[in-house]
């Protein structure tokens, strides 16, 4: 059996601190998340974040810290927090500002601000000590500084009256909210480094980050706000009001990013609640809203589902996209999966869960089962949206056809086209008839009545046109029969000259060309058939015979 190896303070070097903080908190704004998370873990009801060019203030009304709690908070990599009940439990988050500012000071009280504590971290001095130690090693000297020694020189706790600090930390807010007073904690980050300043003063970026990463309320304009917050309350989901002030702008209330404008038609489908579970194991629940059009959400940043553990984001919305059978369904929805299973533990960077059996079951069975339900519902909505779209388009085209029919009286070509169009519209609607009947029975009845009206009107107009055509054909046939029977007795030339010179003129003289379509047929018959195939004498005699018949002489 190997002999145990003893470790002492010299075996744990100070470089561990920058390695941990730089590796875990790659985004400057991750530091805001860490201190907000600490406030929520302390049971706060509201939070105020104030960002200025040189400092950041984060004030909460949580339980605050006693001396004992303050002493526990400064430990590195050690935490009393239960990982099943808290997102932050590794004892590192309080040092997340190491590469962001020169000094971190916590002003805290568990009861009366006059009996509070001041906890100070001199990050600037820590960085200087590390530089000195690195220079020593460059010169070949043995290391002198250890992690414990560095923290002893740069971290302190002392009793203090923190009334002034807690009072000045928060300007009066909007919407009737005043400053937080009483117990709680103020985290003051002073001497913000240039590399972090621009990111912190970018208000849109800060707002977007907080909207998607911390447990905020839903916006008042979101129509499903009350239903979802009621669901959160019943399931122990956490929602904490937060007010943000960046630079010289007014302090503004923060909300989750969901608003009506994120949907194509500014309404979306009401959220559907799903249980995320496998067999008897419940991983949590999900709420999901579908876009109100068969296209992806206009807001690209909100497409897909965001996983939250104790309502803090785990990863991004792209994390689950590969799990969808059809990626487009992921991009037509928005929502969140609220994980409540304590065995699902976020990794240190909050990009995923720690690998364990619970994580495997969650993604393999919990997410797999959820997405099957989501895709089935998406298919259903897509069929219904398509059916509604077809019904609306068919009704609009039928209205247009019905309105145009009076102007097409006698126009057989247009009437036949309309008849074919109505038949085609009927086939289109028939494909979706069952769905439409369930969704919009009244609209379906009205549209079917339009079909009957259009069909009957077109048929009636075509019958009238056929009767006129048949009568004309009979008259022409009679003339042709009489011509075959032999030439009629010739009339004096002067008498023939008195009659109409053309078939069209003859029909006009007797009022037979009131219908434009009949006129067109007679003109074609006269110019392209009779005059081409009959000589002038026979043509004039035929006109005379037809005129005599019209006058009742024969």
Q: How would you portray this structure in words?
A:
It is a single chain. The protein has 18 helices and 13 strands. Helix 11 (357-404) runs parallel beside helix 14. The protein is rod-shaped and about 135 Å long. The N and C termini lie far apart (138 Å). The protein folds into 4 domains: 9-216 and 242-253, 2-Layer Sandwich (Heat Shock Protein 90), CATH 3.30.565; 261-374, Ribosomal Protein S5, domain 2 (2-Layer Sandwich), CATH 3.30.230; 382-465, no CATH class; 487-551, no CATH class. It is of the alpha+beta class and 554 residues long. The protein has an 8-stranded mixed beta sheet. A 5-stranded mixed beta sheet has the order 9-10-13-11-12.
CATH superfamily of the largest domain: Histidine kinase-like ATPase, C-terminal domain
CATH architecture classification name of the largest domain: 2-Layer Sandwich
Widest sheet, order of strands: 5-4-3-6-2-1-7-8
Report the span from N to C terminus: 138 Å
> Whole-number radius of gyration?
43 Å
The major beta sheet can be summarized as: 8 strands, mixed
Q: Helix tally? A: 18
Shape: rod-shaped
Strand content: 5-15%
Which structural class fits the helix and strand makeup? alpha+beta
Low-confidence stretches: 171-178, 488-497
Query: How many domains make up the coordinates?
Result: 4
CATH topology tier name of the largest domain: Heat Shock Protein 90
Mean of all residue-level pLDDT scores: 86
* Strand element count: 13
CATH class of the largest domain: Alpha Beta
Q: What level of helicity do the residues show?
A: 40-55%
